[in-house]
Design brief:
The protein is an alpha/beta fold and 218 residues long. It has one domain (4-208): Glutaconate Coenzyme A-transferase (3-Layer(aba) Sandwich). It is built from four helices and 13 strands. The chain has helices spanning 4-12, 84-92, 128-134, 196-202, and strands spanning 20-23, 42-45, 49-52, 75-81, 98-102, 105-107, 112-113, 138-141, 153-154, 167-171, 175-179, 185-190, 207-208. The strands form two sheets. It has a ten-stranded mixed β-sheet with strand order 4-3-2-1-5-8-10-11-12-13. A three-stranded mixed β-sheet has the order 7-6-9, with no helix packed on it. A hairpin with a 3-residue loop joins strand 2 (42-45) and strand 3. The longest helix has 9 residues, at 4-12. It is globular. The mean pLDDT is 93.
Length: 218
Amino acid sequence: MLDKNGIAKRIAKEVKDGMYVNLGIGIPTLVANYIPEGVNVVLQSENGILGMGPFPFEGEQDADLINAGKQTVTLLPGSSIFSSAVSFGMIRAQRVHLTILGAMEVSENGDIANWKIPGKMVKGMGGAMDLVASAKNIIVAMQHVNKAGESKLLSKCDLPLTGIKCVKKIVTELAVLDILPQGGFRLLERAPGVSVEQIKNATAGKLLIEGEIPEMQL
């Protein structure tokens, strides 16, 4: 199985040269540390940054430079800082090529729930609704099962939805899957040391398995 950094490292392989990429809170922020050498991308944070670099080393943090998750970040040469109004203007105008989000649940139709658990206090939905409504391509970075061992890849989300039919691909500690146009999770890759049977047992939604499933190359 992969840890959170392993999930981020695998997702970084989906980032292509020239992309503008938004990194959501949680596991997605780690993707900044694994952008392949020679791939030039511009990382965007909805609080108003273009050109984020990897996380700073211990002792080199600047408390005034934070991402949307309030983590300290670095800036690359040519980066810029601006208001969140301008940032959301970029998002709503679909100027971001790829959005990487965390999720609590994803359905086999590509619905995502990632902002609220009923009965628990939350500060607000943040930029989640704008991101899922405007993004051209959404990849979800998440755990395949919850702490109780129950699947988070479902036939239908139980939690309040953030977006409908918007997720294109999912990377978990067990597998890489995409969402079929007609609905259902298609298994593309399995994590090192993970069997197809383990993935089947951990997936509550409809799962399509075609031929031999290769192991992830990290």
